[in-house]
Amino acid sequence: MEVKKVLDAKGLTCPMPIVQTKRAMNELVKDEILEIHTTDKGSKNDLTAWVKSGGHQLLKDEEENGVFKFWIKRG
Question: 36: how many CB neighbours lie within 10 A of its CB?
């Protein structure tokens, strides 16, 4: 998986991870991948819903040492 941009949203709480994700996605073109790192536990639900509503694709998500990581392909 070739990541075009990595967004560090660690330490931010809702709604800032979504706001930062939206800004970062606006810098990408169709089919490019954004990797997001966040510590907000609500991010999994928030980002999953946002991805669906925005026409993007959540490729993968995982948690590692309290950091939630997401890979989103721009639609």
Answer: 24
Q: Which helix (H) or strand (E) holds 45?
A: helix 43-54
Strand partners, 63: 68
Q: Is the dihedral of CA 36, 39, 17, 47 positive or negative?
A: positive
In the annotation, is 14 catalytic? yes
Q: What is the DSSP letter of 21?
A: H
Indicate the SS3 state at residue 29: coil
**pTM (whole model) above 0.90:** yes
> For each successive 10 residues of the chain (75 residues), what is the average pLDDT?
96 94 97 97 93 96 96 97
Q: What tokens were used for 18?
A: 């979504």
Pairing of strands 67-73, 33-38: antiparallel
Task: Give me the catalytic one of 4, 12, 14, 20.
Answer: 14
